[in-house]
Amino acid sequence: MVFNILSKKAFITPANISVSDFYLNSSIILKNLLIINSVLMRIFSSSFLLAGLIAFLILPAKVSADSIVSFGKLHFHSQFEKKAFMQLKSDSVPDYFYLFLAADKSITENDYKNYSDKLNLVLAPFNKKSFLKLKAKKKVSKVFKQVQDQLMDKYVETALFSELFKNGEYQCVTSSMLFSDIFDKLGIPYQINFVPNHVYLTAYPETAKVIVQTTSPEKGVVVYDKVFKNKYVQYLRKNKLIGKNDFETQSVDELFARYYLKNDTADLKQLAAMQYTNMAILNLQNSEVDESFDNMLKAYYLNPDSKNKFMLTLTLGMKMDNTDVSDSLYAPYFVMLYKLTQSNLNGESIISIFQNISEKQLKNKGDVSLYEKSYNLITSGISDSALRNKISYYYNWEMGIWFFNQQQSDKAKPYLEKALLLQPDNLKVQSLIVKLFALQAQAFNNDTKKFIVLYDSSIVLFNRHKSLQKNNKYVNLLYKMELRLAGNYYYRGKPNEGLPYLNKFEEMVAQTQIPLSFSTKQIVERAYSSIAVYYYKRNLVLKARSAVKQGLKYYPDSFNLQERLKALN
Question: Largest Cα–Cα distance in the chain?
């Protein structure tokens, strides 16, 4: 098992130490460290950049699992197991015997009843008054011998709790589960003790302190070398988990013993979690990534401590590596990864992951709905507002350019405007907005109603974004739209409708002080020529001449306007 069943001689040295060795130092894993190391190397070099995973090794002992692993995220292998976990959600007292058995996918309600009956038969002799009168040590001794004789036949590192009743196979986690249930039934107070690489019970912890363990931690030896200890202690100091004074006044060995080799007490839920963690480790050894991930979800749900957080991050990384980015499950995994890593996974890595999602789900697959769902899920799960804004920018930019390329300009506009709000000085966004409005203006050139609607929306955008007020191309686009509307109305004999747009053009030039582009000057030439022609046809020569002169003010080098002025003189 992960935390207590060690190989006879397991030496952790600089040659074979890996990130996982902080927790994966059982004989199960140590039998083939090369396999684990190769898996880790693949994970750390994978597309989602699990940089700095070492930083998850020492975290607060208890954190809330609800925001990371809720009941709805668990994948149950049987209805029996689902029922066991549902009991934890209810107000009733959980049946931990039921929960301990649930890890075995073959267990049924009949098995539960049969194993309960079998255990009750074993405990029958202890229901007598004579037993109740015994002293604490004698009580525990009798119970231990009876249970060992009747139920415990062979120590097997990988045994599940159910196998105690199937074939008598056990290990220290499952035997601790058994005796905790027995002590509860017999009213014997006890304490569950977690130590590095081992778990055991203490009966009557406040008085007699009777140790109950079916395996000894000394049967296996783990030797932590100086490099390992130094790195661990340096990490503690770097992350301010130990104070400067302790770091400077205590030796590495003292600090390592104090923080790494410390003993913790646990509850029944944590004990149940340990069985799932062990199963996840076995799954990893057998390259069963899906099963390992599912078991770690349950382990973390039951006990969200630092070790399970690390293991869940590890298995989630492998799960993501095996999941196509275009899959609908990828974004939920990404959110879970973010919540597990938080500040330890840098923003650039997260942005890189999201850009990969954009590439696969939107650009390659063209699934706008999936991409939108992924974005909403990701941004709702990220607490860092600056990081959320960066992701929002990339999302809106990608959606804007997607609809633009699909020739759906009206759908592209709101996304591009949101992208501009998030990054006002982004010239790439500004340029695409200019291009979008220019193409629409060209398309609506012969449809005055649509052209006016387009102009009005472009003015709204202009007034809303200071960056566009300084953008030469965008301002020139507005110049052109105003000149075209003015020229067209005068050409059609509607000066009252054209004059407001002419005034808007002249006011905007004065207001922005942005010079006219050559293409804008060409439209100046056409617009003011149309106005002059309108007045000339009505024998209003002075107004015609005034219009030409005004046009020359904006385009002094216009040959056509110069010739018209000569003719009018």
Answer: 132
